[in-house]
Amino acid sequence: MSVREGSLQAPTRHPIDWKNPKFYEEADLFQELERVFEICHGCRRCVSLCQAFPTLFDLVDESETLEMDGVAKKDYWQVVDHCYLCDLCFMTKCPYVPPHEWNLDFPHLMLRAKAFQFKQGKTRTRDKILTSTDAVGSLAGIPVVSGIVNAANRSKLGRKVLDQVLGVHPEAHLPEYHSNTLRKRLADRRNRQAAGEPAGPTRGKVALFTTCYNNVNEPDIGMDLVAILEHNGIPVCIPQRERCCGMPKLELGDLEAVEALKAFNVPILEALVEAGWDILAPVPSCVLMFKQELPLLFPEDPQVQKIQAHIFDPFEYLMLRHKHGKLNQDFKQGLGTIAYHAACHQRVQNLGQKTREFLSLIPDTQVQIIERCSGHDGTYAVKREYYEASMKILRPVVHRVKQIQADHYGSDCPMAGQHIGHGLQDGTQPEHPIRLVRKAYGI
């Protein structure tokens, strides 16, 4: 029987059967890991994406048999631990994804393995703390505490303590914490009533899911987005309450925590959708969580499906408005050359290059796009044991930014942007594309 090489069809994703007891059966899990790793070993197209695949191939190449049967099962976890679910292998490289008969979904298999680890109580306390973004942000965002945390994160002594206590690499970039959070700044926009002007699938008024990162770490990005939306005649509100989207806990394999966060956020967001609001989030991972991961984890939930149909990436939204003649193009200044890093979790949404398309509308602006992972992933790049690997993944991105010699550089993912700045080590700061658009508008 012949086996078809690759697939010319669009990849499809199957629901994640995480409530099936078989999902957590060790023997079944390892059988699937071996099957998929064997296919990956015979293909090796993903070797340049992240550290998971070189780790796998080194294990095979250093084994006695030079095949998967020579790799100890206990070493499979080395591969799992290096996967941070960027999804690029599934979306851009793998020729064996569904509907191919081999039915290979590497990221969601890694998710299953992480969920198994978590269920077995083998997840480190450090990782549980780092992914508790609501708790950490609430504490670090207290006015006095934020100053202490920021000072400690900038000091050699403070970083030494973090390294010893939590295993946070002393050279890794850590974000600032702000007590004047984005939700505080937008408090007057709770329970707002407004009318929007529809255009295509957009309804012309936006509920901003502020995200835990933008709320306490980079609130200015959210304020820039609000300014841009209102400059385009789009009213903005914020949810009465919100918690983390759940992506950090998903990457940890804590699926019950993901379900709890979903139970909190989804009814609030669905009520906003019912009231005629579209939903935007300024972090690609948060949009992806509501657009892809929650619908795959809870495929029968109508509330999740409703949010999936009405949540947008900011530049996806603005370009939809542009397509239907509702974009303000009264730009006041050009931006020169931009080295633009396309975030992984935006790319896998299958939107196309909407940020690049928007920036290219600005006169006297040239966009050089960089389509490689930055290696950050929120927590991966700050961990002692993975910092060097993250910097290795980042190196080609930094090299490309240096080559371009641009007037500005940045990424849709604010953490990736900061990681690029950290890699450059030249004192320059990343500028989020949303910030660049505000500059171009002169607002």
Order of helices and strands: HHHHHHHHHHEHHEHHEHHEHEHHEHEHH
Q: Which stretches of 5+ consecutive residues score pLDDT under 50?
A: none
Class from secondary-structure proportions: mainly alpha
User: In CATH, what is the class of the largest domain?
Assistant: Mainly Alpha
Topology, number of strands? 7
Largest sheet: 4 strands, parallel
Q: Indicate the CATH topology of the largest domain.
A: Glutathione S-transferase Yfyf (Class Pi), Chain A, domain 2
Strand order of the largest sheet: 2-1-3-4
Taking all Cα atoms into account, the compactness measure Rg is 22 Å
First-to-last CA distance: 64 Å
Summary tags:
443 residues, mainly alpha, Glutathione S-transferase Yfyf (Class Pi), Chain A, domain 2, 4 domains, three-stranded parallel β-sheet
Structure overview:
The chain is mainly alpha-helical and 443 residues long. The protein folds into 4 domains: 99 residues, no CATH class; 42 residues, no CATH class; 138 residues, Glutathione S-transferase Yfyf (Class Pi), Chain A, domain 2 (Up-down Bundle); 111 residues, 3-Layer(aba) Sandwich (Rossmann fold), CATH 3.40.50. It contains 22 helices and 7 strands. The chain has a 4-stranded parallel sheet with strand order 2-1-3-4, sandwiched between helices. Helix 8 packs across helix 9, helix 12 packs across helix 22 and helix 14 packs across helix 16. The longest helix has 20 residues. The chain is globular. The relative contact order is 0.11. The mean pLDDT is 92.
